[in-house]
Amino acid sequence: MESLKGRDLLSLADLTVAELHSVLSLAIQLKSGMRKLQRRKVLGLMFSKASTRTRVSFSVAMYQLGGHIIDLNPSVTQVSRGEPLVDTARVLGRYLDAIAIRTFEQKDLETFASYAEIPVINALTDREHPCQVLADLMTVQECFNRMAGLTLTYLGDGANNMAHSLLLGCAMVGMNIRIATPSQYPPNPEIVEQAKAIAAGKTEVIITDDPAEAVQKSHVLYTDVWASMGQESEADDRIPLFMPFQVNDSLLAKADDDAIVLHCLPAHRDQEITDGVIEGVRSRVWDQAENRMHAQKALLASLLSDD
Ligand code: CP
Ligand code: NVA
Fold this sequence. Notes:
Elements: H1 17-31, E1 42-47, H2 53-64, E2 68-71, H3 85-95, E3 98-102, H4 106-115, E4 120-122, H5 130-144, E5 151-155, H6 161-172, E6 176-180, H7 189-199, E7 205-208, H8 211-215, E8 220-223, H9 235-242, H10 249-252, E9 260-263, H11 275-278, H12 285-303
Parallel strand pairs: 1-2, 1-3, 3-4, 5-6, 5-8, 6-7, 8-9
Helix pairs in contact: 1-5, 1-12, 2-12, 3-4, 5-6, 5-12, 6-7
Bound molecules: phosphoric acid mono(formamide)ester and norvaline (NVA).
Phosphoric acid mono(formamide)ester is lined by residues 51-54, 124, 132, 264-265.
């Protein structure tokens, strides 16, 4: 096991390829057995956006490791009354062993991490959602018994956190990644360049506005909401533009015969994915959601290790 003791996870690319594989194999081992932290540790959860899976899977993972969590919803801390982030970071860093933060700006996460002398975990920002991709890759490994050489097609908002973390994660494990998105919603060019540098010409990094072409021979179809948290006011306007990217039976029929369908959840049935597909035989979304807990337990065990 590669130790990540004391490290931050602000972007998936903060891990080396070897460390990513190490977290994923530990997650698969932990799924069939428990492991305790040598000393009771405390994880803070500072979430400025709603969460079901991330909040609960981190909490249960921490309890199962023998640690504790403290819910630091900004509305019940002095953050809501304007205490500067840098002061909050320095103080919380003296109490907690690690903190998972869900916020808007990646910059705020980075600022917090530079002032708090504990591991800071990205629990979703507008730019990235690395913990989700740990579970996604774990699910791919479980379903196909390999990752390298497979193709994942993400359909929907190419400019969101999931598209960005999948670009990095797939490139890191040797998977081809195709982002099918309306041309008005391209991924952040900096992240596309980062993914291409990781892929080093050995695997595909494709951005396209042609969903039918993008799913050809693809092993994993992945989608996410068309309007992310904070973009609710744009939701209705986005629907007609994104509708051609909906994951439905006819698009699924164009993918590989053994293709699986993933969605980070929460899902809007009959927008980005049809009810038939999410409830259908190709869907692995419930295993994927369960794997959040195993993958994060592995991450926590590594970040908080006493060794
Ligand atoms: N997929 C995910 O992060 O879910 P939550 O928003 O419920 O945490
Ligand atoms: N892109 C979505 C992911 C939710 C888990 C959002 O940021 O709302």
